[in-house]
């Protein structure tokens, strides 16, 4: 937001208490911790500004890109930041169908940058095993990974990076909360066997995606303290083992599943772990800070888990760097509010992403659109405003209005104004995007109320999305051509 706009202060630890805590236990080095950087935003910050204004000033050692972005890769060149690059689910079918498509993807997104970008992993798929995806992606993920690996070998890059496949905790099932009882779902057993063999043969780790907030919402018998690494008087007992936090229990559920599948020694990477700050009850900056601080401190102990003592995840990627107003809300509206930073690069709370005990540095000099907002015109007949409200929310982002959200306290018609403005900003403040059948009104008076901020969009170009879209389009066309040839 522009600097003259009020912003809710992030939670903080009183100075004396913070000094005492640091004296007893200095903040751990975050060398094995990185951040996720996604691009599902209507008005993204320029990639070079994210790298130069967030990643480097905050000493972020590694980053996981949700997809191949030429802007992001060019900005990361020469920085020394370790990079994991993602392959979206939409590309799995064409990459699985054609070694030529895989070679093209590797050439365009890896080989071109390999001399200046420090690649670590290629993450094939984006939780392709989610139950809601059914068979849309699962049948293609292993072959796609194999073809990417083959392309790396041909490009003489296989020794410099590894191929991994992100898997959600839904990949393994557990009828109870006991980690030792977990195993891979029966419907993915064959695919999982092929995947584990592939990972083992290439000495690659298993990448698991943790979603503590989703788990918290669906496990009413587990307390919030369990998810925030708070000392529990009644930990979960699993035989001789005791679990006082969600992360250790999840990692051991995976470890048990791997052991039952015959891969007990496979390394683990946590590809995602975070907590939202808006869009739901208990999604707040204060709770997110507690989770992130607990997670990073817990990982720094390198104590491992009850089933794997002294064995810790190879790497852990915090979720995520920035808010993304176009992420899928299939799991919940809170998915768009996982950022440690707001969409415009301002820290919402303290988290050690590499900078240690120092406060996070924000992106300076963000280029916003003019200070104009769209609100409902109270002088008009609002008896039929509901349809305009629904239309604005369907084509914009109203997740902050959800119960527990930062704007959930807005009364009618304030909530309508919030929806109108969000649509207006996402459409670059074009005059016709504030029409709403004559019920909208453009104002230069900031309508924000307390912690409910009416956003102003960033002035941006479509370059990043053109690069992402064109690259995906080329592969989809190539994959379709291969499919027609096979048929």
From TrEMBL:
Topology in membrane: Lipid-anchor; GPI-anchor
One cellular component (GO) term of this entry: plasma membrane
GO BP field: carbohydrate metabolic process; defense response
Transmembrane portions of the chain: 465-486
Keywords, alphabetical: Cell membrane, Disulfide bond, Glycoprotein, Glycosidase, GPI-anchor, Hydrolase, Lipoprotein, Membrane, Plant defense, Signal, Transmembrane, Transmembrane helix
A Pfam family per the record: Glyco_hydro_17
Residues annotated as domain X8: 372-454
Catalytic activity of the protein: Hydrolysis of (1->3)-beta-D-glucosidic linkages in (1->3)-beta-D-glucans
Entry protein name: glucan endo-1,3-beta-D-glucosidase
Species this chain originates from: Paspalum notatum var. saurae
Organism phylogeny: Eukaryota, Viridiplantae, Streptophyta, Embryophyta, Tracheophyta
């Amino acid at each position: 937001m522009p600097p003259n706009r009020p912003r809710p202060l992030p939670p903080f630890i009183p100075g004396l208490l913070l000094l005492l805590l640091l004296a007893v236990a200095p903040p751990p080095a975050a060398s094995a911790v990185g951040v996720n950087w996604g691009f599902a935003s209507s008005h993204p910050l320029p990639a070079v500004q994210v790298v130069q204004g967030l990643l480097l000033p905050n000493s972020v050692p590694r980053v996981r890109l949700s997809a191949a972005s030429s802007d992001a890769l060019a900005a990361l060149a020469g920085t020394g930041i370790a990079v994991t690059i993602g392959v979206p689910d939409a590309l799995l079918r064409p990459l699985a169908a054609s070694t030529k498509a895989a070679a093209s993807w590797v050439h365009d997104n890896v080989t071109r940058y390999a001399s200046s970008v420090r690649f670590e992993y290629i993450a094939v798929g984006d939780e392709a095993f989610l139950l809601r995806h059914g068979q849309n992606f699962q049948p293609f993920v292993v072959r796609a990974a194999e073809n990417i690996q083959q392309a790396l070998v041909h490009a003489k890059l296989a020794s410099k990076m590894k191929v991994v496949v992100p898997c959600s905790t839904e990949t393994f099932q557990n009828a109870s909360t006991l980690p030792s009882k977990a195993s891979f779902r029966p419907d993915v057993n064959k695919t999982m066997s092929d995947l584990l063999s592939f990972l083992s043969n290439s000495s690659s780790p298993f990448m698991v995606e943790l979603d503590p907030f989703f788990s918290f919402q669906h496990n009413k018998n587990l307390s919030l303290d369990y998810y925030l690494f708070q000392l529990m008087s009644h930990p979960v007992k699993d035989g001789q083992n005791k679990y006082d936090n969600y992360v250790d229990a999840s990692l051991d559920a995976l470890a048990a599943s791997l052991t039952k599948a015959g891969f007990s020694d496979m390394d683990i990477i946590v590809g995602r772990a975070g907590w939202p700050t808006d869009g739901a009850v208990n999604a707040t900056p204060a709770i997110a800070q507690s989770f992130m601080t607990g997670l990073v401190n817990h990982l720094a102990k390198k104590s491992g888990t009850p089933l794997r003592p002294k064995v810790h995840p190879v790497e852990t990627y915090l979720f995520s760097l920035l808010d993304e107003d176009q992420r899928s809300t299939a799991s919940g509206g809170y998915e768009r509010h996982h950022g440690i930073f707001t969409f415009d690069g301002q820290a919402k709370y303290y988290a050690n992403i590499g900078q240690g005990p120092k406060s996070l540095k924000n992106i300076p000099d963000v280029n916003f659109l003019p200070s104009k907002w769209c609100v409902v015109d109270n002088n008009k007949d609002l008896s039929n405003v509901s349809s305009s409200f629904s239309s604005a929310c369907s084509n914009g982002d109203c997740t902050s209005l959800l119960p527990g959200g930062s704007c959930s306290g807005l009364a009618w018609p304030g909530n309508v104004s919030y929806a109108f403005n969000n649509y207006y900003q996402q459409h670059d403040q074009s005059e016709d995007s504030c029409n709403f059948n004559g019920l909208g009104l453009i104002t230069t008076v900031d309508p924000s109320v307390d912690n409910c901020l009416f956003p102003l969009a960033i002035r941006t170009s479509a370059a990043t999305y053109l690069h992402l879209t064109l690259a995906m389009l080329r592969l989809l066309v190539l994959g379709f051509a291969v499919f027609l040839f096979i048929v």
